[in-house]
Write a structure and sequence with these properties.
- The structure is a single chain.
- This protein is mostly helical.
- The protein contains 10 helices and no strands.
- Helix 2 packs parallel to helix 4.
- The longest helix has 23 residues.
- The chain is globular, with a radius of gyration of 18 Å.
- It starts with a helix and ends with a helix.
């Protein structure tokens, strides 16, 4: 990876690759993936004192006339918790929410998403999440790790190749174990669990994550996958990515013990 960084620097830095978006996406995917697998710092956008600023968030809402998110009758509105978390973290959440809505809209309307939109969203969100750091067990850290897990399922594809995100999975499980669940709504906790389960957890984790999902399905009174899917959409969910694994997980977790 150090060699890759040197090659990029010799070519003039990251900005010199902007005209080669596909290549740049693969370079950054490799960098982000290695950081999430090993716990090392990413090679790019990790030395802000050198003038290498974090990528700017893209303005996603101007691309399409986005549909309004579905509304559901919850005692706690899904976005309410954003008021109580770190501002940078909340901004990353909002950007990924807009991106998820954009992908769902594009899929339904058969539009193509510009590749630079994918690049800019991935880089701006994931490098910021990697740069942030909170106490394990805090709501901020649980949101950060779950959002990283969700982003992995959208932007990175190591799991399909049989590779794992060892460091992130360990940090996610440790944070979840320390989390004060009495301070988190069962709806939000269910999204945390689903985001991790469909992206970074392994089959060996089924023995603890499925019972936990089952309990919160009951607390949320979700009697069908359609209701569960509606709840996931109220936070963020991309149907073309998450529907099949999410439905399979819901059905298996809902089975009586």
């Amino acid at each position: 990876m150090e060699g890759l960084r040197k090659i990029v620097d010799l070519r003039g830095g990251i900005d010199s690759f902007r005209d080669y978006s596909k290549l740049l996406i693969e370079i950054l995917r490799c960098d982000i993936g290695m950081a999430l697998q090993s716990g090392s710092k990413p090679l790019f956008f990790n030395n802000l004192s050198s003038g290498e600023s974090l990528p700017s968030y893209p303005n996603l809402t101007v691309l399409f006339c986005l549909p309004k998110p579905s509304t559901i009758n919850l005692q706690i509105a899904p976005a309410t918790f954003l008021k109580s978390i770190n501002n940078d973290l909340a901004e990353a959440w909002k950007t990924m929410t807009d991106f998820s809505s954009l992908i769902n809209f594009a899929t339904e309307s058969q539009h193509l998403i510009p590749i630079n939109t994918l690049l800019d969203t991935m880089a701006s969100v994931m490098y910021r999440l990697l740069a942030l750091d909170f106490e394990s067990g805090s709501l901020d850290e649980m949101v950060r790790l779950s959002l990283l897990a969700f982003s992995i399922s959208v932007f990175l594809f190591w799991k399909k190749l049989g590779l794992s995100y060892t460091h992130l999975a360990t940090a996610y499980k440790d944070c979840l174990a320390k989390l004060d669940c009495s301070q988190v709504s069962p709806e939000l906790l269910l999204w945390f669990l689903m985001a991790g389960a469909v992206s970074i957890l392994e089959p060996d984790d089924d023995k603890w994550v499925k019972p936990w999902i089952r309990v919160n399905i009951g607390l949320c009174r979700l009697e069908s996958w359609d209701k569960m899917r509606e709840l996931m959409f109220s936070f963020m969910w991309i149907d073309v990515v998450h529907n099949n694994p999410g439905k399979s997980l819901f059905e298996s977790a809902s089975q009586p013990r």
